[in-house]
């Protein structure tokens, strides 16, 4: 008969087990730290690319007088430096969405950054106005990939419950980037001339390219290879009522912000007599309110569900939009009152943008790139339409601007109310 030996609980065995346990704890801690570090570096990469997108267009504005003087340009020709960039940015965005769905987000962003860097090099070495225009066109084409797909990376890499928080932070970065770009551009232009601003964009693009290469994961493509590079590839999105409600809500509300920004110089400087050196205070306050609200969103999401935030913010946007109309009718236009009212509206505006946008592009995973491109182009179109209509009817008073913005706000409110009723009757369609 063989007797089973009882385990030996010696001091040596206990110490060995403790050492092994410590090694396992260290390995687990290293994996957690490594994972958190990768997530932080990915977020930093997205922020860098996002800031480059925000700064790319506006940072050259303070350099226009120097450009005009060096190449003997007319006002139209110097403005075309901005327009050419914007037009090709918008047109190429149509193709960047399908391209990102077919080839992958990282590959398209990297390719776009290479094109953007080539445009920077061409502008920096420019000896003629034509070279500057060609360089700016390349910059617009190159930047469209990042502008369209950087938000799609968030949708791909982060869980749904964290996407609204990430989008809030990125919207804050975009707004701060656009607000700081003229200031950065002015300082760099004074120190290094207009080519200094091109150099700043070049360095920022190189850094973004390096971080994107290292820290944005290359995901296997589980999407269809036969994605068409035409408007027909967007057809399924046009057929989706849920997507159209969410996308149009984002386009209309974001359009309100940019219409106000686009008309603010005429309203403040020409019609209310605000000195140009003081105008930036009011514009900075509006951008600051939007950015601050975006950055504070994540704190609020910890205590209030996104759906409630969205509902309350829609009612708040409608209220502040109506209040601006009433103020425009009965109160004399003053820069302070107009700025305060729009700051309150922009603070409420942040929630629909940060909640509806990620939901819209995540509705159909195989169409994420095209969904993001659709929304980006929609914002440009609704902003352009709004600026043209307001400019046509504008009579020098804030009420005309407030009335048109209220129309956009009211339509977006009706669209989202319709979506809430639709999902209430059919919970399977709920996008939250």
Walkthrough of the structure:
- With 432 residues, the protein is mainly α.
- It has 2 domains: 21-219, Growth Hormone, Chain: A, CATH 1.20.1250; 231-423, MFS general substrate transporter like domains (Growth Hormone, Chain: A, Up-down Bundle), CATH 1.20.1250.20.
- Helices cover 83% and strands 0% of the residues.
- The chain has helices spanning 11-58, 64-71, 75-103, 105-124, 129-157, 160-192, 194-215, 235-238, 241-271, 276-301, 306-330, 335-362, 368-393, 398-425.
- The protein is globular and about 55 Å long.
Portion of residues within helices: over 70%
Name the overall outline: globular
Kindly report the name of the CATH homologous superfamily of the largest domain: MFS general substrate transporter like domains
Round the mean pLDDT to the nearest integer and report it. Answer: 78
The description of the largest β-sheet is: none
Total tally of structural domains: 2
How large is the share of residues in beta strands? under 5%
Find the CATH topology of the largest domain: Growth Hormone, Chain: A
Question: Helical region count?
Answer: 14
Low-confidence stretches: 1-9, 26-34, 425-432
End-to-end separation in angstroms reads 68 Å
Label the structural class: mainly alpha
> What Rg is obtained from the alpha carbons, in whole angstroms?
25 Å
Just name the CATH architecture of the largest domain: Up-down Bundle
Tally of DSSP β-strands: 0
- Helices and strands, in order, run as HHHHHHHHHHHHHH
CATH class of the largest domain: Mainly Alpha
């Amino acid at each position: 008969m063989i007797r089973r030996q009882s385990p030996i609980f010696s001091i040596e065995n206990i110490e060995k087990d403790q050492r092994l346990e410590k090694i396992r704890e260290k390995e687990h801690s290293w994996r957690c730290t490594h994972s958190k570090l990768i997530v932080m570096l990915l977020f930093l990469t997205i922020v860098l690319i996002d800031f480059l997108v925000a700064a790319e267009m506006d940072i050259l504005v303070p350099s226009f007088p120097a450009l005009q003087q060096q190449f003997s340009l007319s006002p139209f020709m110097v403005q075309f430096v901005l327009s050419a960039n914007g037009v090709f940015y918008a047109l190429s965005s149509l193709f960047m969405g399908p391209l990102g769905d077919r080839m992958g987000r990282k590959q398209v962003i990297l390719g776009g950054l290479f094109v953007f860097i080539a445009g920077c090099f061409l502008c920096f070495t420019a000896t003629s106005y034509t070279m500057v225009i060609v360089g700016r066109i390349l910059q617009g084409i190159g930047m469209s990939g990042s502008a369209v797909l950087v938000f799609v990376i968030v949708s791909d890499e982060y869980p749904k419950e964290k996407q609204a928080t990430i989008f809030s932070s990125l919207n804050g970065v975009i707004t701060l980037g656009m607000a700081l770009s003229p200031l950065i551009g002015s300082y760099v232009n004074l120190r290094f001339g207009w080519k200094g601003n091109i150099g700043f964009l070049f360095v920022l693009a190189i850094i973004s390219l390096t971080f994107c290469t290292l820290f944005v994961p290359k995901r296997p493509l589980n999407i269809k290879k036969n994605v068409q590079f035409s408007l027909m590839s967007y057809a399924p999105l046009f057929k989706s009522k849920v997507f159209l409600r969410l996308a149009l809500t984002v386009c209309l509300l974001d359009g309100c912000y940019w219409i106000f920004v686009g008309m603010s110089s005429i309203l403040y400087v020409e019609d209310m007599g605000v000195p140009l050196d003081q105008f930036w205070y009011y514009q900075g306050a509006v951008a600051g309110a939007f950015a601050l609200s975006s950055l504070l969103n994540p704190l609020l999401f910890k205590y209030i569900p996104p759906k409630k935030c969205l509902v309350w913010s829609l009612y708040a946007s409608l209220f502040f939009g109506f209040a601006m109309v009433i103020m425009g009718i009965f109160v004399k236009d003053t820069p302070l009152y107009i700025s305060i009212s729009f700051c309150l509206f922009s603070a409420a505006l942040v929630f629909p943008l940060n909640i509806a946008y990620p939901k819209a592009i995540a509705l159909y995973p195989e169409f994420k790139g095209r969904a993001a491109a659709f929304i980006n182009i929609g914002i440009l179109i609704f902003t352009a339409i709004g600026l043209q209509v307001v400019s046509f009817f504008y009579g020098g008073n804030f009420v005309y601007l407030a009335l048109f913005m209220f129309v956009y706000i009211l339509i977006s409110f009706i669209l989202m109310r319709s979506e809430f009723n639709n999902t209430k009757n059919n919970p399977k369609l709920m996008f939250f």
